[in-house]
Amino acid sequence: xxxxxxxxxxxxxxxxxxxxxxxxxxxxxxxxxxxxxxxxxxxxxxxxxxxxxxxxxxxxxxxxxxxxxxxxxxxxxxxxxxxxxxxxxxxxxxxxxxxxxxxxxxxxxxxxxxxxxxxxxxxxxxxxxxxxxxxxxxxxxxxxxxxxxxxxxxxxxxxxxxxxxxxxxxxxxxxxxxxxxxxxxxxxxxxxxxxxxxxxxxxxxxxxxxxxxxxxxxxxxxxxxxxxxxxxxxxxxxxxxxxxxxxxxxxxxxx
Length: 255
Fold this sequence. Notes:
The protein starts with a helix and ends with a strand. The chain has two domains: about 20-140, Immunoglobulins (Immunoglobulin-like), CATH 2.60.40.10; about 145-255, Immunoglobulin-like (Sandwich). It has two helices and 18 strands. By secondary structure, it is mainly beta.
């Protein structure tokens, strides 16, 4: 009886492994109007699921560089010409499947910037033994990464200490791949609308334009004449691409 059970288990195992075929899938996250999301900004997180059952088939972070700027941003795109190489950021999944599987691919990026993380997804059939390599599956990630540098979160600022009743706003803004935004650069700061929206005790009181002062750094100033709880919202908007980004900070003006 034991020998029969062992034989059945062996045959089952053998048959499963005879049909399961390793299948490689390359998944990449690309910032809209920019380059690939890689190590320099913490990467993107990829989850591949069986669309019918919800089972996670593979997951992990993209690794590698942002790619060749000239090839991605300046070279006219021709059919069947790759825009990536073996150093370009991506996540290589290897699935053991015995029949075609309809999968969903979810991307969260950039994974280390929680206030800026955007998700993107697609669905497709994966066929056993039919690898998807090269550029692979590219999922576009729109937006900007914005970090308000000043004022700081929950900073207490004395009204008496504020010179000329004005405090400065500083905000660091980059593309979702970390690519540099600068005055007249490839990602031109002058084409991006950047503003601060100031609220006091929940009520909007000011809009403040922010201008680029050095690569990625946008600055402005806030007029302050009273104490209270303040919230500052900084947004960026590029009308040509539709890219947007937001960060928020709360601070307190004391007597």
